[in-house]
Model the fold of this input.
Amino acid sequence: MVGDPDELAQLWDFLCRYLDEAPERLPSVRNADLQGEAAWLARADRYLFSSLVDDEHRLVPGRFNAFRFYFAAVLEYWYLRCGAWIEGKASTPAYPPDLADAMRWDGANPYAREAASPAQQAASRGDLYHFRRRWRIVAVLSTLLYGGIFVGMVAIGWLVFV
Done:
């Protein structure tokens, strides 16, 4: 949450611009095409860790940046994985007809979209080696952390209640 009045004013100006100006006068939307079943980690890089990961899905140089990324990613990995699973597998009810009509968009999208770079496309497919390696490390560390917490809770419960 933003608490600084200057940042809130900038955010409001940004929102007003998108509400008031014509679509052709607005800047393009970045990474709008990171879609697909394997793209959830690429979207996490882009939207959750944008200050720590560059456009080529490499960590921004600096030890503290790597620590910040791995700390947050290890804590959030299974949450993100569950969200991606729900997004891909959960059934979604049909909208009521009047709401579906209100949401229908006729014609092409008037807002400019910035095409993903080859590295971003490869990351969204899961083909980028350094990207896969970094997220595999996160997956292993997150599994060890939460698995260790679970085993510890079971062991404590076993010792206390048996």
Summary: The radius of gyration is 21 Å.
